[in-house]
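Deliverable D2.4 — example input (structure tokens):
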């Protein structure tokens, strides 16, 4: 790391102009501009000449030609460079020329500057007479952000040049430092690199020996500063080439991601990063027709998406094919979650972009908090997403990470690993890995983050994942183990004065509900009667045998809503719902029944249930010894207190 190129960030501080948390508003865009400026200097005159020729010929679409002339994925058609501006002594002239310089950049750089809102900083910098000083600092021979070395007077190298990778590393280091200074915000857009490396390996290692040479597409639907895409690309670059795609709603972090790729010479990747407040991944999918080979993400959790939901027509008007799907015969199977937390919808968005026609399909790793495992009742969006995933056999594993892994939260987090091309030995099963104790403490906390995954920890988790064996920290279950039937059970309405054997009309039943006195010893209210053997008795499904006037009939009772209850029956229950009710419910209430048409299927995953280790109770001898020790410690204390009061 070229530490000298970072030192100026610390040494050049306007304590009376910007508070510490706002340094990034100027330093990050100016770093970008200086690097781009150094790359464009050699072709400056050629670009200006090409611009003049294109204008004279009346050509409107000039972008491709100007990029080609510049030899970069960007260009600047103003007549200035930062070196020219450093010579300005008049403050007003400097401001005007600097604004003209900014206006000359290509549309992709304009997008970055607008997202940084950098032009809003110019009046403050100019008024404080700091703009010229800042440009001079950037042009100093002590700072080299160009690809060419800075030579001393004797021809020796004073500052080595920076290739694209080194420049990208410096920029990412600047972002990391600023995020650490503002660690109350860091976790929103900056996923710790140790977690990202683990995620990348979890999706690449299982297919490393089967991946063929070629170009693969990587995607992050909540890409923040682009770190996940960068780490994923670095992980697989020795095997294949990649094209990166990302979407980010926060303007500043979008600008950082786009700038980072430009600085690293990845102009195509920069063009494939889409962002800003108008580009919410949920409400405005930037890549609706794209399918991707690898996908990673750390979506916002516990964050409302109500405004997106309203733009999409609300729950009743939602028609987005990513979230209203066909599953298990339901043509409008809803994946729409509570408006207070949209994290699972980011996962559904990724699943909609899987490749189904390739040998390797798609692989996904996404970070969620604990609510993703169990929030949402059967039939609700979160549970429906889990059901859709597991019943399609896409879920390979979930890894529980150590607490306090992230900058701004100490809550439990989990990596979901999914694939639509599960290997044979994983099919029909899901692996849960408890990695909560595999970490290395940090010497100094970074916000809430007090630990990290060392290389050994990452390797241990990956080895456990690849081994796919039952162990103390690895449990393997059939898919159905996480599913359940939500069964509504009813009991008859019993009201004093009801005549046994009589069928009551809906109007009479309404009156009984409103004014009748309930009595468990009273006869049940009959709402329907079947005679002549047309229907066979089936008490568990609400068809009860009865004798009316000496004739055997089958009756249906009016349910009492006050006695209504629900039972959660595991899908793996032997004998199904009927066997469960006969064993667990009928012994306590012999007149219950359920309507099979109202049964809903839900899925939830409980790490606590599978990995909880109860602490053994202390023995009576240990407890007695503690009590006796306490008595000895306090012996005479009461007498001293009483004696002191008496005196």
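Example output (designed residues):
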């Amino acid at each position: 790391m070229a530490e000298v190129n970072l030192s100026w960030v610390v040494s050049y501080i306007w304590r009376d102009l910007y508070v510490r948390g706002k340094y990034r508003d100027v330093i990050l865009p100016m770093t970008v501009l200086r690097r781009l400026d150094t790359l464009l200097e050699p072709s400056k005159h050629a670009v200006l000449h090409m611009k003049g020729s294109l204008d004279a010929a009346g050509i409107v679409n000039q972008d491709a030609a100007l990029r080609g002339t510049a030899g970069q994925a960007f260009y600047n058609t103003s007549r200035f460079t930062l070196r020219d501006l450093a010579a300005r002594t008049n403050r007003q002239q400097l401001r005007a020329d600097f604004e003209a310089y900014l206006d000359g950049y290509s549309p992709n750089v304009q997008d970055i500057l607008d997202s940084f809102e950098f032009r809003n900083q110019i009046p403050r910098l100019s008024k404080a007479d700091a703009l010229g000083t800042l440009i001079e600092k950037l042009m100093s021979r002590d700072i080299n952000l160009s690809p060419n070395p800075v030579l001393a007077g004797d021809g020796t190298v004073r500052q080595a040049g920076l290739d694209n990778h080194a420049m990208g590393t410096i920029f990412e280091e600047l972002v990391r430092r600023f995020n650490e200074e503002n660690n109350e915000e860091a976790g929103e857009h900056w996923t710790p690199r140790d977690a990202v490396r683990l995620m990348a390996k979890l999706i690449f290692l299982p297919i490393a020996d089967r991946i063929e040479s070629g170009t693969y597409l990587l995607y992050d639907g909540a890409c923040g500063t682009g770190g996940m895409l960068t780490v994923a690309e670095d992980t697989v670059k020795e095997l294949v080439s990649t094209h990166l795609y990302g979407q980010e709603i926060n303007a500043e972090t979008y600008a950082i991601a786009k700038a980072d790729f430009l600085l690293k010479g990845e102009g195509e990747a920069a063009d494939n990063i889409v962002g800003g407040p108008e580009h919410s991944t949920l409400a405005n999918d930037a890549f609706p027709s794209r399918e991707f080979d690898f996908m990673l993400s750390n979506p916002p959790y516990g964050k409302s998406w109500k405004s997106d939901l309203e733009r999409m027509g609300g729950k009743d008007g939602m028609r987005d094919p990513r979230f209203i799907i066909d599953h298990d015969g339901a043509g409008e199977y809803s994946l729409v979650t509570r408006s207070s937390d949209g994290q699972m919808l980011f996962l559904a968005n990724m699943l909609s972009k899987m490749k189904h026609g390739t040998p390797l399909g798609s692989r996904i790793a996404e970070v969620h908090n604990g609510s993703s495992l169990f929030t949402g009742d059967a039939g609700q969006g979160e549970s429906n997403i889990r059901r859709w995933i597991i019943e399609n056999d896409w879920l390979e594993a979930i890894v529980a990470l150590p607490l306090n892994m992230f900058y701004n939260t100490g809550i439990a987090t989990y990596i979901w690993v999914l694939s639509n091309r599960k290997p044979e030995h994983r099919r029909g099963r899901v692996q849960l890995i408890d990695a909560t104790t595999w970490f290395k403490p940090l010497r100094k906390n970074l916000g809430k983050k007090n630990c990290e995954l060392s290389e050994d920890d990452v390797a241990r988790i990956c080895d456990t994942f690849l081994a796919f064996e039952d162990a103390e920290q690895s449990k393997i279950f059939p898919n159905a183990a996480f599913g359940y039937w939500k069964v509504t059970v009813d009991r008859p309405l019993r009201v004093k004065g009801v005549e046994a054997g009589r069928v009551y009309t809906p109007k009479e039943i309404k009156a009984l509900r409103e004014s009748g006195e309930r009595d468990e010893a009273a006869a049940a209210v009959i709402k329907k009667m079947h005679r002549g053997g047309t229907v066979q008795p089936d008490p568990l499904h609400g068809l009860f045998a009865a004798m009316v006037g000496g004739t055997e009939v089958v009756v249906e009772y009016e349910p009492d809503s006050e006695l209504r209850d629900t039972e959660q029956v595991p899908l793996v229950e032997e004998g199904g719902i009927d066997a469960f009710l006969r064993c667990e419910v009928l012994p306590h209430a012999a007149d219950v029944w359920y309507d099979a048409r109202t049964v809903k299927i839900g899925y939830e995953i409980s790490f606590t249930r599978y990995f909880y280790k109860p602490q053994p109770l202390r023995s009576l001898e240990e407890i007695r010894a503690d009590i006796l020790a306490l008595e000895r410690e306090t012996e005479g204390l009461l007498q001293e207190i009483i004696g002191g009061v008496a005196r």
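Residues 9-16 have pLDDT under 50 and may be disordered.
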